[in-house]
Amino acid sequence: MNKIAFIGAGSMAEAIVSGIVSKQFIENKQVWVTNKDNEERLDEMEEKYGISTSQEKKYVLSEADVIILSTKPHDVWSAIESIKSYITKNQVVMSVIAGISTEQITKAIGKDIPVVRAMPNTSASIGYSATAITQGEFASERDMQVAKQLFESIGTVNIVKEEEMHIVTGISGSGPAYIYYLVEAMEKAAIDEGLDSVTAKELITQTIIGAGMMLKTSELPVETLRENVTSPNGTTEAGLKVLADRDFKNTMIACVKSATNRSKVLGKKEVK
């Protein structure tokens, strides 16, 4: 791959840039980023990651193998309008924008362009993203392989059907924030009970990492893993009883469904 062009310079774009740069997936200077009009943001990313930036859209897209749409959902149509005349059929457009389908993007570009939709998360910045990708109408298996290789450089990749991307957004796209919210609460409880913040963070962080590795490596169902930690009349059971009494499971289900539904709403926006 000779060149990757990012359209949008927000937190998701930065997470992916950080990941592919640190993994040396491509030469730093062959990663190009542009945005709507924030020169300061581009300068910041160029200095931080040693990449290339420009507000000249034609120049940024020229000879790019991959174009990554990474704007906010409400900015995507104006972004596509500003670049569509420079997109050629030998380029692959990849979108990491929540809710927006490959069909909508193809329609907005106005050409039979290969489009691959991806939903990574911000853990991409350290190479631990959970990414799902789906194939647009004009994307080939080779295009999907390119997408898979790119996103595997920043974590794991699953190929899913387009209609499944909304729930993917609700689970893994938004998922890190749910975990961080949980950790915030655990840290507050620890500090309220007299533990210093540094120790609390270290213990909780390692607990999250350990639980994640158990989920990844164990063949046991998650229910069994939970039960194995829960001794009758013990401390874990006392804590879990509070969660059950406060309907924690259904609250989490509602959380995921709300994020999923929001993705569906974003996907209903008309192409301008």
Overview of the structural elements:
The model has no long low-confidence stretch (mean pLDDT 95). The protein is elongated. 53% of the residues lie in helices and 13% in strands. The protein is an alpha/beta fold. Helix 7 packs across helix 12 and helix 8 (175-192) crosses helix 9 (197-217). The two termini are 32 Å apart. The longest helix is centred in the last third of the chain and has 21 residues, at 197-217. Strands 3-2-1-4-5-6-7-8 form an 8-stranded mixed beta sheet, with helices on both faces. The chain has 12 helices and 8 strands.
What is this entry, summarized?
With 272 residues, the protein is α/β, with parallel strands linked by helices. The protein has twelve helices and eight strands.
Keywords:
single chain, 272 residues, alpha/beta, eight-stranded mixed beta sheet, 13% strand
Largest β sheet strand count, sense and barrel closure: 8 strands, mixed
Counting copies of identical and different chains, the oligomeric state is single chain
Strand order of the largest sheet: 3-2-1-4-5-6-7-8
Q: Let me know the number of strands.
A: 8
Kindly report how far apart the N and C termini lie.
Answer: 32 Å
What coarse outline follows from CA principal-axis ratios?
Answer: elongated
User: Regions with pLDDT < 50 over 5+ consecutive residues?
Assistant: none
Strand content: 5-15%
Secondary-structure element series: EHEHEHEHEHEEHEHHHHHH
Count of DSSP-assigned helices: 12
